[in-house]
Amino acid sequence: xxxxxxxxxDKSALITGGLGFLGSNLAHSLVTLGxxxxxxxxxxxxYGGNMHNVRDIRKEVHLEFCDIRDSLSMERLVRGQDVIxxxxxxxxxxxxxxxxxxxxxxxxxxxLVFLEACRxxxxxAKIVYAGTRGQYGKLHSTPVREDHPMEPVDIxxxxxxxxxxxxxxxGRVHGLRxxxxxxxxxxxxxxxMKHGKYGILNWFVRLALEDEAITVYxxxxxxxxxxxxxxxxxxxxxVGGRDEANGKAFNLGSGNPVRFMxxxxxxxxxxxxxxxxxxxxxxxxxxxEVGDYVADYSAIQSALGxxxxxxxxxxxxxxxxxxxxxxxxxx
Length: 331
Ligand SMILES: NC(=O)c1ccc[n+]([C@@H]2O[C@H](COP(=O)([O-])OP(=O)(O)OC[C@H]3O[C@@H](n4cnc5c(N)ncnc54)[C@H](O)[C@@H]3O)[C@@H](O)[C@H]2O)c1
Description:
CATH architecture of the domain at 5-187 and 228-253 and 294-309: 3-Layer(aba) Sandwich
Bound molecules: nicotinamide-adenine-dinucleotide
Low-confidence stretches: none
Number of helices: 12
Largest sheet: 7 strands, parallel
CATH class of the domain at 5-187 and 228-253 and 294-309: Alpha Beta
Strand order of the largest sheet: 3-2-1-4-5-6-11
Helix content: 40-55%
CATH topology of the domain at 5-187 and 228-253 and 294-309: Rossmann fold
Number of strands: 13
Strand content: 15-25%
Order of helices and strands: HEHEEHEHHEHEEHEEEHEEHEHHH
Structural class: alpha/beta
Mean pLDDT: 96
CATH superfamily of the domain at 5-187 and 228-253 and 294-309: NAD(P)-binding Rossmann-like Domain
């Protein structure tokens, strides 16, 4: 039995971005725990919203197609919810540099519209924000703790940081019960597989399954921390169901960082197909590359007992298997 099943049973839970990767995986767990789940999503074309993501739970969830920038919709949706997982967002680092105003619209204005709706219509809801490791930007030291300076290297990182800051401010000033998770590179089932603009490891799974070349920039020696999506779901459930950590922001990490190149090798071996090619760093990618990233997740571990459980080889095995079975819905 899940330690939080008594908490979530019959609770009303809203997930914005609920048809996307993180949102839909979380939705499956919430349904299993007996929550009354509403998913809202604008199904914007570039992102990971996909009706197939909720095929198994379609009858158990309530769906609302709306945009987080629309205040009337958000005001209606947040009412009566016990826990809100605010996961919708513009997710591409690359696009944030070519379409900065769209990123600002969704990741700044959208967050304020959402928070204002909560402040006015449901100030008692528990709110979990999907922050990102991208908020740290250029690194001074690793492993990265939550008090590391935040100097984002792209518009996405700046606006996600603004989004987190809005949440924590609404916690301090208006008393909302907020927590932010600074999510790591996450991979697993139900991610968009249409392009490699974000979620690069998932994109590589597609390339490997299609027996295509996987391009590694430079020597591929940069350290990365990858989390399997089920571990991220557990973190969402934990912070959503416990109040000790309100007002805080937590890193997630793997505890087992790997070199980018070794991640690709592990994938090629799990998939049994694909190949690696190496080229010099393209200028636009080099400009927003932050070097080694290793998260220190000891804060959430000691506050709430969270720790990652699924290692990279096992996570990749499950991921490869999922897309082998479901590729027609994602390619
Ligand atoms: N997946 C990761 O590795 C990762 C890492 C760090 C942070 N995050 C954050 O987690 C969140 C979700 O990421 P994901 O990987 O699930 O991406 P995703 O693209 O699969 O999901 C995002 C969902 O939000 C929806 N959405 C986007 N803009 C919207 C809007 N204006 N109104 C309503 N819905 C909208 C999309 O349609 C999509 O279904 C993002 O905010 C992202 O910044 C993800």
